[in-house]
Amino acid sequence: MTNAARFAAIHQHGFVRVAVCTPRVSVGDPSANAAETLALFRSGHDSGVDLMLFPELGLSAYAIDDLLLQDALLQQVRDEIVGLAAASIDLAPVLLVGAPLPHNGRVYNCAVAISRGRILGVIPKSFLPNYREYYENRWFAPGAGVTGLEMRFGEQIVPFGTDVIFEAEDLPDFTFHAELCEDMWSATPPSSQAALAGALILCNLSASNIVVGKADDRALLCASQSIRCQAAYLYSAAGPGESTTDLAWDGQATIHELGVLLDQTTRFPQNSQLAIADIDVERLRLERMRTATFNNAAVAAGHPERHFRRIRFSHHPHYEDVGLRRKIDRFPFVPNDPTRLDRDCYEAFNIQVQGLVKRLRATKVRSIVIGVSGGLDSTHALVVAAKAFDALELPRANILAFTLPGFATSDATKANAWALMNALGVTGEEIDIRPSARRMLEDLGHPFAKGEPTYDVTFENVQAGLRTDYLFRLANQRNGLVLGTGDLSELALGWCTYGVGDQMSHYNVNGSVAKTLIQHLVRWAATSGQFEAQASQTLLEVLATDISPELIPADEVGALQSTEAKVGPYELQDFNLYYITRFGLRPSKVAFLAWHAWRDAKAGDWPPNFPVAARNSYDLSQIKGWLATFLYRFFELSQFKRSAMPNGPKVVSGGSLSPRGDWRAPSDGSAHLWLNQLEADVP
Fold this sequence. Notes:
Layout: H1 3-7, E1 15-22, H2 30-46, E2 51-53, H3 71-87, E3 94-103, E4 106-115, E5 118-124, E6 149-153, E7 156-160, E8 164-168, E9 175-180, H4 182-185, H5 190-196, E10 201-205, H6 214-228, E11 232-236, E12 253-257, E13 260-264, E14 273-280, H7 281-289, H8 292-300, E15 309-313, H9 338-363, E16 368-371, H10 376-391, E17 399-403, H11 411-424, E18 427-430, H12 434-444, H13 457-478, E19 481-484, H14 488-493, E20 507-508, H15 515-527, H16 533-543, H17 563-567, H18 570-583, H19 587-598, H20 620-637, H21 639-643, H22 672-681
């Protein structure tokens, strides 16, 4: 298999494709139910599915009452299980089906795992509901405490008990466990212990009749269990065909991962259906590794892995390109859903305001000094400051805002800066740094001082350093606090002047806010009634301005210096930043995710109000190239700047590089390992 072909395969990147199924059942007819199960089984195989979950008692039907104690039915169910096992020899998915099974004079409500001709194991339901409409104690024995046993199916001796976890020998992290319906509703779901024992995919075979409001309860429980157990949680409830003598069924089936709903079936279907999604089991394992609480819980529980049997099986993963059945947000810091985006912007903005309010109260400083360029970052920091002063009931005139034009400051950005300062009612002043910069360049013997167009890093940093120097001295002079404006993306890429430069301030409200989010925060501030009409209009004009440090004069055709031409598109680099720092993913996997998120501008969702003209796409070579830039700048070039970064509030998950918070790393590290992995595994 070529490197390109392997790169495109989900199995290469730690994904397992799962399906939750709601077959149309026939009441008390195991043969018909097995046939319907087999039809969905084949459909899942054709779709590249690795694991398929079916409802509780799906081979017999659930609502058949005393028929569950009829020997003819129980024997037919066993025969159909053997038949499904025989049919599974040439089918790839692992099958989880529900069945009533007798053992040692008792009948148990069971989940049966089948793969490649083999019945892998049988798990009985631990907790039996026996209240309101439920009467399971009449027919079944509880599975709680049933461990270490076996059950015979023809020539196969099969593990039987609640102490069973299944693990693929040839697909890393493909480990799963099954519980049944009421088990999830109990105070101590068996899946919690299974997760602590290592299961990454938790499955629930359910019947669960529907009443008004119950679907929301199920979804809440599934989402909650997937978060608490740091797992995927698959749920499949009984659907069409179940007896409606006294109850009704909606066929709700869901797939959650870390609290996020990946896919679900349509409720109240008339025919069989399934929902399919790709679970990132590798990410789940990595998340558990970095969460001490999860591992401490395993210790407190007496290391449950000692008490579970691991049933290993050969899965024969295909390593083929079957696409990716999972939404990958282009902007991991920016939700696509309008309601969620509005809520996130509200929270992010107020976290920043709260952070600054506390710092001002603690320092007893009644004024701040801020540099306002007319660009996104300083604009957002200024509006945060305005709201903080409103909250403190201090006059906005105590915000001392300075525009500090240099050799490349454009008329448009300076005009925006002044318009915003005036609209917000802050105290605005202008200090032209060009005379001081020219004098420093002369003292350095720099070619620019002699009239030569030399625009090197010294030329840039003389201006950046002077601006910060002025701000700190102004703060000394006017008893103020210097408010930083640099954002998370710049810190990640090292795109900030160290020390006496934009890297430093007394407090920085933007330090854990990605550039891609700041754009939406500014738009939210402009459109949600936070400020007066003139200020809001100016904010929208700032949004339309290209991102530029404005340190180098425009070229012969008038083109301004472009930050993104140097360090890469912020939309890609923020994507890389999130997945590498938040989950610790390999570069090749980050490239795979970015490829699916960014290769087609017409596919997938975009955040609300995102300009059509700005909807970019990137091919794999571009993604790989800019990821290499990120890896070098992040791991090797710029950690020393983050090790000395100012205080500021953490705003979003995966959005802090503070050495006192989410990210601790050596300042003299090397990027070779990450760059080598990228080069080796991305075509």
